Amino acid sequence: MSLALGEALEAMAGFPEIAPTDFVRRGLLVIAPHPDDESLGCGGLIAACRAAGLPVSILIVSDGAGSHPGSALFPPAILAALRQEEAIMAAAVLGVGASHVHFAGLPDRSVPMSGYEAERACERIAALAAAADVVAVTWRHDPHGDHKASFALARAAVGRVPGAGLWEYPIWGLTLPPKMALPGERPRGVRVHVADHLPAKRRAIAAHASQTTALIVDDPKGFRLTPEMLARFDTEWETFIECPL
Ligand SMILES: [Zn+2]
Question: How far apart are the first and last CA of the chain?
């Protein structure tokens, strides 16, 4: 089975709309391949859950050190530390304390899908997922190796945890050509209403200043989220695709 991305997007637009607290009832775990994915894909849901008093944990899979490989002012260790700080600030804006933000520290651009480090990350995800009924991870079709690897790690981990469901949030998959064929069936899922929490989501995304501004001045080829990309996430709902385990 396969379908075009355009058909998948159409299916997503028709997902039933629900309130955040009808989606998450016990606790939320967000797996982000890079510091910023959690705010882009789930910032509204995170803020809504915290406002309702639900526990939220965030696990950032990679160290984020690969976004500006040409910068001398921000070599990998400094950049990783900066991005960790940004993730903690973004989480605070959404109501999540630093003790609930976890960093697996795997290498940006080479998150492994197997081997010792991958198994350790899996164990960590499974331990955090025990307190959650919803685990959210980036979409399996996101065209980025770290996003695909994070999905694979989360699927393996959540399969070990009774009571937790896995949901996928699209980031880079939204930018694929509409006619591109994706393996798999028509997606099913939900659109979660987050309008009340959009201002907090915007502030959380802005906290990732290394990815959204010209903060790092000495690497013009470094990564930067474009206004077009940011606009895709500036919506009153967030999309979660159900992942059968
Ligand atoms: Zn990412």
Answer: 18
| Range 2-243 classified under CATH 3.40.50.10320 | yes
Please give the Cα distance from 191 to 242 (Å, whole number). Answer: 11
Helix segments in the chain, DSSP class H = 5-13, 20-23, 37-51, 76-93, 116-129, 145-158, 198-207, 209-212, 227-232
User: For residue 23, how many other CB atoms are within 10 A of its CB?
Assistant: 22
Report the alpha-carbon distance of residue 127 to residue 157 in Å, rounded.
9
Q: From ligand 1's centre to the CA of 173, what distance in Å?
A: 11
| Residue-level pLDDT, tens digit, the chain, 245 residues | 889 999 999 999 999 999 999 999 999 999 999 999 999 999 999 999 999 999 999 999 999 998 888 888 888 899 999 999 999 999 999 999 999 999 999 999 999 999 999 999 999 999 999 999 999 999 999 999 999 999 999 999 999 999 999 999 999 999 999 999 999 999 999 999 999 999 999 999 999 998 898 898 888 888 888 999 999 999 999 999 999 87
Distance 33 CA to ligand 1 centre (A): 5
Whose tokens are 């797996």? That residue is: 31
**How far away, in angstroms, is 37 Cα from ligand 1 center?**
5
Domain residues of the chain, as ranges? 2-243
Structure tokens at 201: 């989501």
